[in-house]
Amino acid sequence: MNHERWAIPYGDLLTLLLAFFVVMYSISSVNAGKYRVLSNSLYAAFRGQPRTPDPIEVGHERLGSGADLRISIVRQDILKNQPRAYLTPLPLLPPKPAAAPPAAVPAAAADDAMLPRVAANVDRALSELISDRQVVVRRKPGRIEVQFRSDILFPSGSARLSGNAVSAIRRLAAVLVRFPNPVRVEGFTDNVPIRTLQFHSNWELSAARAGSVVHVLQKQGVAPRRLAVIGFGDQRPIASNATAAGRRANRRVVVLILSTKLAKHADPAWVPGAGT
Predict the structure, then answer these.
(1) pTM for this one?
(2) What's the CA gap between 161 and 174, in Å, rounded?
(3) Mean pLDDT within 177-200
(4) Counts of helices then strands in the chain (DSSP H, E)
(5) CATH number 3.30.450.40 given to 107-266
């Protein structure tokens, strides 16, 4: 019988223990410089104020500051275990040029002198409808009123534009898109009550009709910031509702083209030409 067989497993055990401690030692060996830079950089990024056990002398920069973050980790790996003085900061990328400010609107565009030009262009664009008395263009101080008879725009009790109406509004939009003036679309009805699933009263009907006109203007390129919708219902009649002719006159949509001065006075937040 061999009494020294225990030496074989004992030798194997010692070998395994040695390998175990070698692995543990290699894992526990950390580059203190790299760990310190990483720790302070992460702390500065998430907390705002980096922490460091070293006092900060006048004229020196704190670890984790912008200068410290400029040091490349790759260069640290190449120069590991070298004094920190050898780690030169990498050059910063040049800042991106600031975006150019939007072009300013000419001063003439903000003056009431622009309104006669707008009115002349509207007259040319809608000359046929004006001749047929389906559209009326009025020049008033600070604004131009383009009044459409509602019966040429919408079927009775509806806010859906007819084909001819869309064509007329597109011609008006082709003029408005060239100028910075704000545009307000107002809807009016007669005093005949309406109560349907779609329109609870004339208030909703008048606002929906004005909104339909605004949608066409927007699709043709008029900036939404320039547009506004108002529904007056039957509260602003221009004729007597006692006759059919009077009720027909009261059913109308008016496109108001305002001067930039008037719009700025009514809404100080409005910027001439914004979004055009």
Answers:
(1) 0.55
(2) 18
(3) 91
(4) 11, 5
(5) no
